[in-house]
Each structure stands twice: as C-alpha cells, then as structure tokens.
Amino acid sequence: MWSRVVFGVVLCLVGAVWFGQGMNWIKGSFMTGHGFWTVVGAILFVIGVWRIVSGIRLGRSTTPD
Prior knowledge:
Helix content is 75%, strand content 0%. It is built from 2 helices and no strands.
C-alpha cells in the first residue's frame, strides 16, 4: 500500500516539474518551452494522483474494523 502512495508522490513531483518546464515556468533544461513535456508532465501527474488514491483506498480496505 505505502509503496503505491510513495510511487504516486514521486510521479506527481516529476510530472509537476516536467509540466513547469514545458510551460516555460522552470528554466534551464532542454525540456523548457516544449509542449510535449507539458503534456507528458500532466499525464504523469494524473497517474500519480491515481496511484496515491488507489494506495489509500487499498490501505483502508485491508485494515480490520
């Protein structure tokens, strides 16, 4: 469960950085200002959020009442 959450957080962070670079908000990389990295970053961010939510739900379903 926690591995899903940690992996989701990492995906969100990487996706946010790549999105920021693609949007030209973060300078200093070959990715800066390229729309491709904006799209890839947004997709990674969404997948990261999905992994976090699924990890939390999995943890709740396996805990005893």
